[in-house]
Specification:
Layout: E1 8-13, H1 18-27, E2 33-40, H2 49-52, H3 65-69, E3 73-74, H4 78-84, E4 87-90, H5 96-108, E5 113-115, H6 141-148, E6 155-157, H7 167-170, E7 178-187, H8 213-224, E8 242-249, E9 256-264, H9 270-279, H10 283-286, E10 297-300, H11 308-311, H12 314-317, E11 320-327, E12 333-339, H13 343-359
Parallel strand pairs: 1-2, 1-4, 2-3, 4-5, 5-6, 7-8, 10-11
Antiparallel strand pairs: 7-9, 9-12, 11-12
Bound molecules: NADP nicotinamide-adenine-dinucleotide phosphate.
């Protein structure tokens, strides 16, 4: 693991939003990263962070004192941001074109961007990281730096939060060659940057449509499971499994649940699946990265688990909780999986990616 003297200075662009607030909270007293800068839209700029998020702090834990006192910058002040920090996390609600322009501009100012946004996700030379699954994809950063003309700047992304429930569960089963996956996701309101209080239509209701989510859920796993060899200029998507996703918004504050059925080319036994889930110790756990949950996958034997209210905080909100593994009369096996969408699915997953990238030597002091 690469040693860096002192903590890296970090900023958050989009610090006032749902994911930004999680990042603020996770970076308070982080052992490797020192939160120096918060930026958001012009509406929040110039105010102390505490005032900028007044009435919309959505977490159950208090706002960290030091962050509360930081003055929020306008995210358009790119050079000021680049001068102040070694890298940034980015979680903004902007049209894709503007998000990509913002992220590439920061990268070109030699400021690596660990992004929670989807704008750059499907670019072949931008690694879409779940650190437990594809840490080697970071190798494509060299090709990306050539495209951007940078020495140290680059962008990494995390995948859509909905697939972070079932892609981790399927990964240790890849040797059995899953050929078809049918997944129905039950997604929390915080996934839309909202709370139950500011989305009255969600009260006692479900909405069977989340724009763009099903397409992302069907494509992104193939990039995560894709191939990369040193010297490649892009990630080559995996060819299977074929995935069918239906994504439904449900009246839950945090925690996305998925009901998943899978067909394998080589059907595993129940005890093999449970053993692989239990014994899997991915790279971030072996490297003892500060935000890596131990274990990553937790299997609950009870018939009525996992539940968002009871299980989303497992492993500090970074573990994926599985249950109800049983034979499927149409495909081979079915199960239920759960992950915390703003922690594992967004802010926590991004902090873990940054830890991995620092350990791999991609993030360092300017
Ligand atoms: P959100 O709560 O709506 O927050 C949006 C953030 O973007 C705020 O800080 C906002 O600042 C900032 N912003 C808006 N316009 C801006 C501009 N013109 N320039 C700079 N900053 C601007 O959204 P969110 O839920 O945190 O999501 C942020 C990103 O993370 C999105 O790309 C989303 O798809 C992704 N994501 C979200 C989740 C989730 O569970 N929520 C999960 C995975 C990924 P102001 O407060 O000043 O307006």
């Amino acid at each position: 693991m690469k040693e860096t003297k002192g903590k890296l200075r970090v900023g958050i662009v989009g610090a006032t939003g749902m994911v930004g607030q999680r990042l603020v909270s996770l970076l308070d007293a982080h052992p490797w990263f020192d939160l120096r800068l918060l930026a958001a839209s012009r509406n929040s700029a110039g105010k102390p962070y505490r005032e900028a998020v007044k009435g919309r702090w959505a977490l159950g834990t208090p706002m960290p004192e030091t962050a509360g006192r930081l003055k929020v910058l306008d995210a358009a002040e790119l050079e000021t941001i680049a001068d102040a920090v070694d890298f940034v996390f980015c979680a903004v609600s902007l049209p894709k074109k503007e998000t990509r322009a913002l992220e590439e501009a920061l990268a070109r100012l030699e400021t690596p961007v660990i992004s929670c946004n989807s704008a750059c996700r499907m670019l072949p030379d931008v690694p879409m990281l779940i650190p437990e699954i594809n840490p080697g994809h970071a190798g494509v950063i060299e090709a990306q730096r050539k495209r951007l003309g940078t020495r140290r700047g680059f962008i990494t992304v995390k995948p859509n939060c909905s697939i972070q429930t079932y892609v981790p569960a399927l990964t240790p089963l890849l040797p059995y060659r899953p050929s078809a996956v049918v997944a129905c996701t039950y997604q929390a309101v915080s996934g839309a940057g909202k709370t139950m209080a500011d989305w009255p239509e969600m009260e006692r209701n479900v909405i069977p449509f989340i724009a763009g989510e099903e397409e992302k859920s069907e494509r992104e796993p193939l990039k995560i499971w894709g191939g990369f060899r040193e010297g490649d200029t892009g990630i080559r998507d995996a060819e299977q499994p074929l995935i069918s996703a239906q994504c439904v918004r449900v009246p839950v504050d945090d925690g996305h649940l998925a009901a998943v059925s899978v067909r394998f080319e080589d059907k595993p036994k129940r005890e093999d699946i449970l053993r692989l889930w239990r014994e899997w110790e991915p790279a971030p756990q072996r490297m003892k990265l500060p935000s890596a949950p131990r274990p990553f996958l937790v299997y609950r034997e009870e018939d009525d688990r996992p539940q968002p209210a009871l299980d989303r905080d497992a492993g500090g909100g970074m573990a994926v909780v599985l249950g109800r593994l049983r034979e499927d009369p149409v495909l081979d096996w079915r199960f239920v999986s759960l992950s915390h969408n703003t922690l594992r699915g967004a802010a926590g997953g991004s902090v873990l990616s940054a830890e991995l990238l620092q350990a791999q030597g991609y993030l360092e002091r300017k």
